[in-house]
From TrEMBL, chain A:
<keyword id="KW-0963">Cytoplasm</keyword>
<dbReference type="GO" id="GO:0001534">
    <property type="term" value="C:radial spoke"/>
</dbReference>
<keyword id="KW-0206">Cytoskeleton</keyword>
<keyword id="KW-0966">Cell projection</keyword>
<feature type="region of interest" description="Disordered">
    <location>
        <begin position="1"/>
        <end position="23"/>
    </location>
</feature>
<feature type="region of interest" description="Disordered">
    <location>
        <begin position="202"/>
        <end position="255"/>
    </location>
</feature>
<keyword id="KW-0969">Cilium</keyword>
<feature type="compositionally biased region" description="Acidic residues">
    <location>
        <begin position="203"/>
        <end position="218"/>
    </location>
</feature>
<feature type="region of interest" description="Disordered">
    <location>
        <begin position="393"/>
        <end position="422"/>
    </location>
</feature>
TrEMBL record, chain B:
<keyword id="KW-0969">Cilium</keyword>
<keyword id="KW-0970">Cilium biogenesis/degradation</keyword>
<dbReference type="GO" id="GO:0060294">
    <property type="term" value="P:cilium movement involved in cell motility"/>
</dbReference>
<dbReference type="GO" id="GO:0035082">
    <property type="term" value="P:axoneme assembly"/>
</dbReference>
<dbReference type="InterPro" id="IPR055316">
    <property type="entry name" value="RSP9"/>
</dbReference>
<dbReference type="GO" id="GO:0001534">
    <property type="term" value="C:radial spoke"/>
</dbReference>
<comment type="similarity">
    <text>Belongs to the flagellar radial spoke RSP9 family.</text>
</comment>
<dbReference type="GO" id="GO:0044458">
    <property type="term" value="P:motile cilium assembly"/>
</dbReference>
<dbReference type="GO" id="GO:0060091">
    <property type="term" value="C:kinocilium"/>
</dbReference>
Length: 544, 276
């Protein structure tokens, strides 16, 4: 602590400056006192600290050993750090016979799974037979798409793209798939989702609907059995009045292969993990998804807690958002797809399109300048939640075959407005912007080398949706959180207003029961009235 | 992220789908070095990219020897030519609160304040200026807000000397895997606000040379304004901010690599409480 100055009695070295005690004198005046001072100094240095059990003497010895062993540059500048490290090293000694189990970080398991992706599948004989019958399913060239998007600065790292490529290959091998496409990646709070858009081969889907049909018939039989029992009971008891409330008919989801359910989606959290099929989306889910805005957690069976309550779990919410994003942002160069000439154009718009063999891709500069060179090739979703409008009243008619009279009344009251959306293959220049922001931003990937630049479209309504076009090649992709952009803040739907009470009418107003005196008085009044009537009749008879 | 480790860092952040094209990367690696020479920065960070409707802004930050000093910020529209931005003033920050919506992509674009907020417009008129806000000023304010709110560093990466200057810690070996998943191991790299509110017991455990910044634990909403994930088969820990969507922080545990970058539209996510 001291700088130094004259040594105080409690400090080591006290007395060494007195004549006879300095180390530089040849004659040691009193060796005994000097030895005592040295011993005191050493004893002080050997004092163990009450806090840490170390002593300064050993500590200095260790520091000097370490410095002389390692010979660091500028040792005097880092002496404090060296001292700290030596102290730290005290605690690291493992003299126990028990050894800690080496921590297996989860990284190694994940690496195993990725390694499994690289194995070529065995059992090639079966595979060949299937190929001959059906024709090989097309594995999309994910790396090529990734290259084009990289020119715009969009996309995952090359490693991850390659893993996704291999994972898609696995998916095709396992599931009966006709066409397949890497749709994109949606980020979540704990895990992310990698999504593949797929069309299953035609036979495979029917099995599912067959199963569903069987289930409903089994339930229907159960219900009629119960209804019969109830009717018998009704004859015995007096039932409370039945509610006449009929909930609005559930709008049925579109059949697999059409409209919002045109494609089937598979998701996985990471390439290497097994692919999970997402259930088809129902209009109720889309209508509700439009009203809520929630982050995805990464677990497909997580509940979606929201108001209005979402009918389903995160898997359904994910599927609904995918449907909305696809409908709003999947675009292709105008003219690439065309309506087949044989089909008549129905009012609701044809649902099918085919590639136009005579398509001439416009130059990149034109694709960037004018948005009329791009067109949607996925049908937009109507307010109802479907791509093809269905009249909810017709649904009611199918359900209630018994009450014919009521049907006629309802028809006269209301006709819901038929909803029409824009027909398929509309140009994206018709998309509305929000306030002063256009719906799409078009850019060329590079201004320095225009011959090889790629036209890039970014959606402003769904941030994260991108499309590129270069010659005859084009592709859409999505990387984002899965939410729509809105210039105003999100306001949740308010709960419905409290329902009005039943109007008060005399039949149901409560009155106090008449007391015994009132009843007697009423009875007497009645008898008097009767007696008067009889007297009048008697008088009339007498008159006659 | 450090300019020297730009390619490697971009690989680690690419999980979100946003990145730079090869042309931009090549331009940045050259122009950032030149920035360091011209402005005599000790370190140059590539801060990120703000997407406007018609164009994008690329932002770089330069640091001097004291890391806690206000950082110089520069922006560029093409990754080659850089312009210095003036530091944000309180009035700019206050006015920028009222301007919402996407950036336009044109630095001289003017937002009219008369429509958005009459008070702010009136104040500006009184002080003799026009009731508009230039996009450049809005850019400055937004970058400042993002850095203050969600610019993070791992614990122990920076040390504070007794004289008050903040330096990089050359002994920083990286966080362990267990520490890397905790929110308390990351600090906001700005002047601390919450430190003095800690109880004496907590303060006794802190080490004043490394714990001189606010940790992420106290961000509102508690514990959920960040998404922590292990990517690349558990080798990189990536934190994504949910308040400013697009800010990504990466760190490879047990190594010195860390950094953050912003790829987004430059808008605060005010709907966060509804979305959790």
């Amino acid at each position: 602590e001291r700088g130094h100055g004259p040594y105080q009695p409690h400090e080591p070295g006290y007395g060494l400056d007195k004549p006879g005690y300095s180390p530089y004198e040849d004659e040691i005046a009193d060796p005994h006192a000097r030895m005592l001072a040295v011993k005191n100094a050493k004893a002080y240095l050997l004092k163990t600290s009450t806090k840490s059990g170390l002593n300064l003497y050993d500590h200095f010895a260790n520091i000097l050993t370490k410095i002389l062993d390692e010979q660091p540059t500028n040792a005097v500048d880092i002496i404090e750090n060296i001292s700290k490290d030596v102290k730290w090293a005290q605690f690291r000694k493992k003299m126990d016979t028990l050894r800690d189990e080496p921590l297996i970080p989860p990284t190694f398991e994940a690496a195993e799974k990725c390694k499994a992706l690289f194995f070529k599948e065995g059992g090639e004989e079966e595979h060949e037979e299937v190929e001959e019958e059906m024709g090989q399913p097309t594995l999309p060239n994910v790396m090529e798409t990734a290259f084009y998007f990289e020119q715009a600065g969009i996309g995952l790292s090359k490693d991850e793209s390659y893993y996704i490529f291999l994972a898609l290959k696995n998916l095709i091998r396992v599931q009966p798939i006709q066409t397949c496409r890497f749709w994109g990646k949606i980020l979540g709070l704990e895990k992310n989702y990698i999504i593949a858009e797929v069309q299953l081969r035609e036979g495979e889907e029917e099995e599912e609907t067959g199963e569903e049909g069987e289930e409903t018939t089994a339930e229907g039989e159960k219900k009629t059995g119960e209804a019969e029992e109830e009717e018998e009971e009704q004859k015995d008891k007096a039932e409370p009045p039945q509610s006449t409330y009929k909930p609005p008919p559930v709008i049925p989801k579109e059949a697999n292969g059409t409209g919002t359910n045109k494609y089937v989606y598979f998701v996985c959290n990471e390439p290497g993990k097994p692919w999970v099929k997402l259930p088809p989306v129902t209009p109720a889910q889309i209508v509700c998804a439009r009203k809520i805005k929630k982050f995805f957690t990464g677990w497909l069976d997580a509940p979606v807690v929201s108001f209005p309550p979402f009918p389903g779990k995160e898997a359904n919410y994910l599927r609904a958002q995918i449907a909305r994003i696809s409908a709003a942002t999947q675009v292709s160069p105008t003219g690439f797809y065309q309506f087949p000439e044989e089909e008549e154009e129905e009012d609701e718009g044809a649902d099918t399109y085919e590639e136009n063999p005579e398509f001439e891709p416009p130059p990149v500069a034109e694709m960037v300048e004018s948005l009329a060179t791009w067109a949607h090739h996925v049908k937009g979703i109507l307010k109802q939640g479907r791509c093809v409008w269905i009249n909810p009243q017709k649904l009611e008619e199918n359900d209630e075959e018994e009450d014919d009279e009521e049907e006629e009344e309802e028809d006269e009251e209301e006709q819901p407005m038929e909803e029409r959306g824009p027909p398929l293959l509309t140009l994206i220049s018709e998309d509305e912007g929000m306030k002063d922001i256009p719906a799409w931003t078009a850019q060329a990937s590079t201004n320095l080398i225009p011959e090889y630049s790629v036209a890039i479209l970014q959606s402003n309504r769904w941030p994260g949706a991108y499309a590129f076009a270069s010659g005859r090649k084009f592709e859409n992709i999505y990387f984002g959180w899965g939410h729509k952009y809105s210039p105003e803040s999100y306001t949740p739907e308010l709960p419905p207003p409290a329902q009005a009470e039943f109007p008060s009418r005399p039949e149901i107003t409560e009155t106090v029961d008449p007391t015994v005196e009132e009843e007697m008085a009423f009875k007497i009044a009645q008898e008097e009235a009767l007696a008067e009537d009889e007297e009048e009749e008697d008088e009339e008879d007498e008159d006659d | 992220m450090e300019a020297q480790s730009l390619p490697a860092a971009l690989e680690l952040v690419a999980g979100g789908g946003a990145g730079l094209s090869p042309e931009q990367r090549a331009a940045l690696s050259a122009s950032l070095l030149l920035l360091q020479r011209d402005y005599r920065f000790e370190r140059v960070w590539f801060w990120g990219c703000i997407q406007g409707v018609r164009g994008a802004y690329y932002i770089a930050e330069g640091l001097g020897p004291d890391c806690a000093a206000p950082r110089s910020r520069l922006y560029s529209l093409n990754c080659v030519d850089w312009s210095l931005l003036t530091p944000a003033s309180k009035e700019t920050l206050a006015v920028a609160e009222h301007v919402k919506g996407r950036f336009q992509g044109d630095p001289s674009f003017e937002y009219s304040l008369l429509e958005r907020n009459a008070e702010a417009a009136a104040r500006l008129i009184e002080s003799g200026q026009e009731p508009v806000m230039k996009e450049e000023a809005r850019l400055i304010a937004t970058i400042e807000q993002i850095d203050t709110a969600v610019g993070i560093v791992p614990r122990g990466a920076f040390v504070k000397t007794p004289l008050g200057a903040v330096h990089e810690n050359r002994h920083f070996e990286g966080l362990s895997l267990a520490d890397a998943k905790k929110l308390s191991s990351y600090f906001h790299f700005t002047d601390p606000v919450n430190l003095k509110n800690k109880t004496l017991l907590e303060k006794a455990d802190l080490d004043p040379s490394t714990d001189f910044l606010d940790s992420l634990e106290h961000d509102i909403p508690r514990g959920s304004s960040w998404s922590i994930q292990l990517e690349k088969r558990g080798t990189v820990v990536v934190l994504r901010s949910l308040l400013w969507l697009g800010l990504t922080f990466y760190h490879v545990p047990m190594t010195k690599q860390f950094g953050y970058v912003y790829f987004g539209t430059g808008e605060k996510n005010l709907d966060l409480p509804f979305m959790l």
